[in-house]
Amino acid sequence: QVQFVESGGGLVQPGGSLRLSCSASGFTFSTYAMSWYRQAPGKEREWVARIFTKNSRTTYVDSVKGRFTISRDNDQNTVFLQMNSLKPEDTAVYYCNKLPLAPKWGQGTQVTVSS
């Protein structure tokens, strides 16, 4: 059974940093692209960042380019999201998933950016 466990969220002031982790299981992690998504209150879930398997190529939504960095550790079946220069509009619950999407999402991790 595919499972995702996200962690690392919290409350941070604008301009601060957080590092999110997502531990995945139930599939051959190293052979799948992995993504981070987020859902802010009252909004639909949006894609944030993706890391592919070949050459670990990465891609980001425009709003986080230059501030967020996605990475992966295939030995630990874990994907990370380093978030720097955080803004209040980054406040959301953050989720990870593979590509193609698994139907069951994890519980997510709350990120709140506020002074």
Describe this structure in words.
The chain is built from no helices and 10 strands. With 115 residues, it is mainly β. The protein has strands at 3-7, 10-12, 18-25, 33-39, 46-51, 58-60, 68-73, 78-83, 92-99, 109-113. The strands form 2 sheets. A 6-stranded mixed β-sheet has the order 2-10-9-4-5-6, with no helix packed on it. A 4-stranded antiparallel β-sheet has the order 1-3-8-7, with no helix packed on it. The mean pLDDT is 96.
What share of the residues does DSSP label as strand, in percent? Answer: over 45%
Class of secondary structure makeup: mainly beta
Oligomer state equals single chain
With helices defined by DSSP (H or I, 4 residues minimum), what is the helix count?
0
State the helicity in percent bands. Answer: under 10%
Strand order of the largest sheet: 2-10-9-4-5-6
| Order of H and E elements | EEEEEEEEEE
Weakly predicted, low-confidence segments: none
**Broad shape:** globular
Mean pLDDT: 96
What is the count of β-strands? 10
